[in-house]
């Protein structure tokens, strides 16, 4: 069942239960109230009768005359003498009077009398209290009161019916307000499923639904960015892989068809070997990046002595440094340690230092220091530096300069540094070239 109907049904059921209980309570109280009210009215009638009798007949208590007067009133009553315990007069027939006398105690205080199957509400008033013991007893049949009660109940029922109608309508409107944003949200989720990110619309809602809507919107944005980056990655990757393959194919076909001279053929083979090497590097780096991204378990954190780590880096790059005839300085503060995967971090630093050596004119400098609990590793050179407009993208995959190789080195370095809870950035070095800075909060 749809949420809207479930909510409406629950709301309506609750209202009906409340109305039924209220109705029952009112119905059972109303009879008592009506009886009390009837008694008050009888009392008033009695008092009026007595005062009329007093003014019309004064102290001349001629029973016959009074009888005549009472006969003219359309009232059921007895005139009862307490002292003699007898009914002197009644507006009802003799048979009825006898029946009443038989089943009720006239000298008692019962307020409800019985006659046959019927009940009567009574009210008693003393007539000439100073001189006589005469009493007027006025009666109203319960049936009359029950008719009023039925009537009242009928109206109550109608009011409740209208109330129930309004309640259903109201609950429908209220639940619509609640459910409409949800169905709109569902539609947006469908769009996300179909990857129609540009068609996604914001939804007006409040409270928790608003929060969910906000999260969905952010999730869609994140997903779109992710998918775009994946797409660019595949485009770049296929381009990067295709170029060396085409070169290899060209030379291979040329050699097969004997279109080259001996010397050219030799050169072609060399190009093919170097392109295959390049392909291997690209593929290895892509595999490494994919691993770094998808398997958090490839990181084995341990306590790393930073000085030893930098020594390893220097050992590895020294041959190339010597070959290029430049200088490599390193300046590492004592007793610095770091919680990291040593092998991966070495890889990240090597990527940066090899870049530095490649781009440097005369020198590369590595410095490591700790300030305010932040450990910083800087790698700088005196080359051309990284162009300002390239800086925001330089750590992305396959982004490289004119003299670039695979364009994956910095992306790998960033992935490793981020997994070690560090940050990496690039700016200008005092030496004149680029300065790559890695920071680890400790
Ligand atoms: N020390 C540096 N000085 C100047 N440019 C640099 C330096 N390091 C990196 N770059 C630029 O950043 C690009 C990306 O570097 P990287 O991701 O290591 O790829 P690759 O080295 O394979 O080209 C390089 O192509 C180069 O243009
Ligand atoms: Mg590189």
Could you explain the architecture of this structure?
With 442 residues, this protein is of the alpha+beta class. It has 3 domains: 3-153, Beta-Lactamase (2-Layer Sandwich); 207-294, Helix Hairpins, CATH 1.10.287; 299-441, Heat Shock Protein 90. The protein has 9 helices and 12 strands. The protein has helices at residues 3-57, 63-72, 94-103, 142-193, 207-256, 262-294, 306-324, 342-359, 409-419, and strands at 76-81, 86-90, 112-115, 118-127, 134-141, 302-305, 327-332, 337-340, 363-371, 374-381, 423-428, 434-441. A 5-stranded antiparallel beta sheet has the order 2-1-5-4-3. It has a 5-stranded mixed beta sheet with strand order 7-9-10-12-11. Strands 6-8 form a two-stranded antiparallel sheet. Strand 11 (423-428) and strand 12 (434-441) form a beta hairpin. Helix 5 (207-256) runs antiparallel to helix 6 and helix 7 runs parallel beside helix 8. The longest helix has 55 residues, at 3-57. The structure holds adenosine-5'-diphosphate (ADP) and magnesium ion. Magnesium ion (MG) is lined by residues 351, 355, 405, 409.
